[in-house]
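We store chain and fold; example below:
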Amino acid sequence: MKLNYKHTLYACFSGYICQAIVSNLPPLLFVIYQAQLGISLEKITLLITVGFCIQILMDSLAAKMVDIFGYRISVTIANVCCFMGLLSISILPTIIYPFTGLLIGIALNSVGGGFIEVVINPIAEALPGDEKSGVMGILHSFYCWGYVAVVLLSTLFFTLVGEQHWNWLSMLWCVIPLFNLFLFLKVPMKTLVEKDVQISSRKLFSTKTFWTLFILMICAGAAEQAMSKWSSFFAEVGLGTSKTFGDLLGPCAFALLMGITRLIYGKRGAKYDLRKLIAISGGMCIFSYLLVSLSPIPSISLIGCALTGLSIAILWPATISLSSKMYPNGGNAMFGFLALGGDIGCAIGPSLVGFISNIMISSNNTDIQRLFAGDNITQSALKAGLFIAIVFPIIILLSTCMLKNKTSTTDSSLS
């Protein structure tokens, strides 16, 4: 069968599903790592931080590597790393020191995830068609559908097979990056911007507007992952639900609402001012985090977790689309730096929540427990950590105000 650009778009969709797997499967296993492998909360926080730091390093290098090797080789490297990372998570903890095995697997996943984030967006942006913001919204919704699939199918696996066989689950998910690997070897691709007309990195960072967009990406990633990475643990340990209900009512509901919102944005978002949509999302995100952290009723806190998925849904794709409009010749460098900003946020957000929670647990302060209406110190500590994360949507609101008077042609002359 002759493959066309529609198949290229499908491959991009599949690429984001792959990224959802490598990003969100390990957090579903945090409690299992604690129970079966003896991994402490402090080491779990370290796994999250190291993973995102490696992804940040890849973001800073990937744009240059894409310019050198091209899209096809780069996306091939990404899928190979994701495949090897999932395989390592399933095998290495059983044959070497468990924490080291998990660290190696998550490091490989981070390399693959970093490459995917940098290369998939320009591949999709370069495809023929006019509704780029719509395509970007639908594309990023597949990250959410992958997230939902990871939660639902993993929950089904644990129910039917048992949590003691968790390492087989990681091995089964290896099929997706392997499928992506062969698909991307065949589909046609276009170059977004030729290297000789791309805006240089120096010129991009010489403008206040791009710095504002970069900060927006940092806060978008932080607001999303602070809840995404801790919602399963929060539901199970903090609110006392079972693993099945914790995953379904926490990360699954979060991802489902995020995916639906991105899909609606992909279909209708082009009609609206992206800056206003980002500002509205920031305000809703503040409300959601307050609901999670300050509600004395566990079920209301879980609703807040889900609503956070709705509120942060468009922040990442809308900021990328807004950047593409303001810098039409941004090229791989721009997408690389935007991915770098987003992943810096992805590292900062959940790490901040874990850091604050650890401090609160160590202090064993009863005033904290009363303030955040917790039944136990762990629940109160996690709520305190999530409360601190409100700083990110607040910065998002301030940043959109700075972009208020900017137009799509303001900085295009930089090319």
Notes: The CA atoms of residues 258 and 313 lie 5 Å apart. The chain has 19 helices and no strands. Residues 408-413 have pLDDT under 50 and may be disordered.
